[in-house]
Amino acid sequence: MTLKTFRHLLAPLLALACAAAHAGATLDKINERHSLSVGVMLTGLPFGTLDPKTQQPVGYNVELANELGKRLGVPVQTVAVLPPNRVQFLQQGKVDVLIANMQYTEERAQILDYPPTPYEQVGGAAVIRKGAGIHQWADLKGKPVCVSQGSNFIAPLQEQYGAVIKAFRSQSESLLTLRGNGCVAAVHVAPTMRDLLEQAEWADFETPLPSELIPSDSVMWVRKGEHDFQARLDAIIRDWHRSGWLIELGKRTGMEPSAALYALHEKYKDAQALQ
Asked: CA-CA distance, 80 to 150, in Å (whole number)?
């Protein structure tokens, strides 16, 4: 083997080693700078929004981020992300972890890591103008449906129900298009859609479909190879289930706890408290 060939073969291995070392150092970096950067969605309650009086982020995901910081013993900096950029923000090191309405999918797990214990389970709901004649998910076949770019609802809407997808950079753009009759339905996470319909300006719309679309585990996401950070977050999430704090948080913030969340509390309630 020539020296040139050896160097050619060695280069990818060194790159992987450097990447692994970088990824595994996240906890050290958090402690060194004494802060935790969390990517959150601020596109609507109950998950997150800006308080109109203080202009500070508030909501379910924001409180998860703040409690995570308390458990790690550092202040939290929340960073607003959107579906098209949230993965890039994490991979580029702009945030340490994503709590950003990203349910588990196999595709996402191929490029990111995650604590294996979910903190909730959420499905999709379709907001539809009243009187549109849409009563089942199958009624969306051949009809334009608005979603966010990168949504995990795109595949089932296309493959199972034959909807014609219109994907937008943000949820607000999707909903604006719905109001302008650019689509017959907008599909986003169910808790946000339920909260939306409580507003007077949405009195002409409803969520008439009888079931949520693909209820999936809500997980936090970290960069590939961050096994120490991944394990630390997983221990914290399991302790939240043990204490029932996630159930209390959901009730307090309008994020109605799912049956899966109650089941996780039953699973972990007798575990030893995290020290």
From this structure: 16
